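Re: weekly structure request thread

Next one in the queue (404 aa):
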Amino acid sequence: MKTVQTALLDFQKSFDFTEPASVTHQQRILAAYKVLLFDKIGAFQEALLLADSDQYERFITRAQALSVDELLEFGAIPEVSHRLLHLVPGNGHPAASNLTEGLGGGPALSTPARQQMAGMLTEALDAEASKRTHQYDTALYPQLWAADGSFYCRYQEQTQSYATLEAYRLLDTVPVDFFSPYALRISNADVNEPLENTIAAYDFGEIEALCYWFDAAVAPLADYLPIAHQVSSFLRAIVVNKISHAGRVTNFISGSDARYIGRTVLSNVQGVSPELLVEAFVHESIHATLYMADACSPWLPTREQTRLAGYRAVSPWTGNRISISSIQEAIFVWYGVYKLWLVALERGLYTEQRVMSRLAFVSRGFRALNLSQIATACEFRVSAELQDVVEVMKQDVARQLKVQ
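Done, posted below.
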């Protein structure tokens, strides 16, 4: 299958949530990403067949039990796509080779590496099957977790029955993972936290209240398709944890990782306002969109270009020094956040004072944004296409300010 290249103007149109047509552009980006995943799954199967025919048969039997749509949804699980994009070489796609040294686009996997990857993916496929049957082969696994933390199944000897647990889903779609093995192994390095800080799971008794709070945060926009579709389509798993320093909980943070496309980590969500939560959901979903598009047809600076440019770009929104890659992402992210709050203002959603405050904050950043100046400081040449799209977004924000 041929990957369709995404024009940068599609990003602007995808994140202009005031326009119903934004959904069409979102769908186009998602479809291209799924084509890439389809090809990667095929490449992995070919590599596995050469490495271990028995393991290939175990994998292919499970994969063929899924429809094409189900297989693509499985491939889009961040833990799965991470392996497909960064551990499966070649196949005619760049597969975000700038993200990790020696992985996507690098040398072919060794036979043990293929076998280890096949074992993980086979187990993940068995977990998907267990969602339907609520059972599994106890000779193979003591328990099963879905790779996105959405489902758990364990055989209980005492009752000779299977106990299951299904995760809460944001907007009835995005699984929220509080304590799967995939969530619990996220380290300080994974979320850029100092080593002296402690990452921990929430207590089981705290989770229900947090899920109600998430529902309350997104409820005002649940029936507004451009934003609801954006969040539910591009966020593929939300990991929730808490971070403390010397026994004291630190601030709320949200983050995404281009190596695990669609996975968002939220830390210290207790007591966070609905406005801050919904902005985080939209903010991180836009990062996921940009990563998906970059995996299909790279538009961000490569790893080496980013390293050479250093952290010399100053964000006009936060004042932080960030990479040239991050500033390019940030422009689209803040444009989408601006449109989120414009929709909220027009529809009378959330607290008006906070909505106006966020609109003012984002618009100040766009007024101060000078991409050419940033590129010069970073000694990096920005494409004419990106400059043109950024100018479209700046003018759009300025025009909306005059209307308000």
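Residues 22-51 form the longest helix (30 residues). The radius of gyration is 22 Å.
Next request, please.
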